[in-house]
């Protein structure tokens, strides 16, 4: 059986708009009514409305006409549907580099206007140097071959280029607004030796440079605090979008590939805000903390 396609963020937006049109129609139209009008089952309409599958173009036209959409609205919606069908930039990466469930992660990451990340163990991927990333991947995936490792690094650097614009002069860096990346790091993640003293020193220096960018905010939870709310949560990302149709979405990392949460986002957001306000050092202190650690990691 073929693996299901990952739902892109644009597809999710379109599915939500399709639902809203039906719900706001006057008089209100049920899923059963919509299904009968286009000759499918209510279950099929439900799958369209949650983004699990896409209706044919002619069916979309019939549904939107039924829902009372104008010809201009129908034309605009169909244009966005065609845009959503275009292959994502990461589609060419094989499953051993990018598992299917992480396609959605890249879709969320690419579309978000604010990315909040809590990382108690390692430097977040978007802020890693190549040497640190190679060392971390080699440690987390024992026996990984050189070719596969190179593909992982290629994917990571492409993410960094597209999200953070870390290669000046690229179309992504010049023409696309960069998201706010707000990171809370446990100090132990910065003191855990990954790749040796030189690699760690260069990684800390890189964080110092990245922290100077206005869109990147880094806060560090001091190691002497001991336990705090985030120590139970583990690593997670919280994505926020400009589109009003999209709620905040949490991605929580795990050994089996992680999970996406839609219903518990307020708890994660509250926890993140609490870590920022109560436990992590203020953003203004980050350069001094990183500078101190950089001095300690300087190879002798």
Describe the structure.
The chain has 14 helices and six strands. It folds into two domains: 9-84, Orthogonal Bundle (434 Repressor (Amino-terminal Domain)), CATH 1.10.260; 101-297, Endonuclease, Chain A (2-Layer Sandwich), CATH 3.30.870. With 300 residues, the chain is an alpha/beta fold. Residues 1-6 and 167-174 have low confidence and may be disordered. It has helices spanning 9-24, 31-38, 42-49, 57-66, 71-84, 101-111, 130-140, 146-164, 171-175, 187-191, 197-210, 230-233, 265-279, 286-297, and strands at residues 114-119, 180-186, 216-221, 236-240, 249-252, 259-261. A six-stranded mixed beta sheet has the order 3-2-1-4-5-6, with helices on both faces.
Supply the key terms.
single chain, 300 residues, alpha/beta, 434 Repressor (Amino-terminal Domain), Endonuclease, Chain A, six-stranded mixed β-sheet, 14 helices, 51% helix
**With helices defined by DSSP (H or I, 4 residues minimum), what is the helix count?**
14
Which outline best applies? elongated
The CATH topology of the largest domain is what?
A: Endonuclease, Chain A
Rg for CA atoms: 22 Å
Low-confidence stretches: 1-6, 167-174
For the biggest sheet, the summary is: 6 strands, mixed
CATH architecture of the largest domain: 2-Layer Sandwich
How many domains? The number is: 2
What is the beta-strand fraction? 5-15%
Q: What topology, given as strand order, has the largest sheet?
A: 3-2-1-4-5-6
Question: Would you tell me the overall average pLDDT?
Answer: 89
Number of strands: 6
Helical/strand content category: alpha/beta
Helix content: 40-55%
Write the element-wise H/E pattern from the N-terminal end onward.
HHHHHHEHHHEHHEHEEEHH
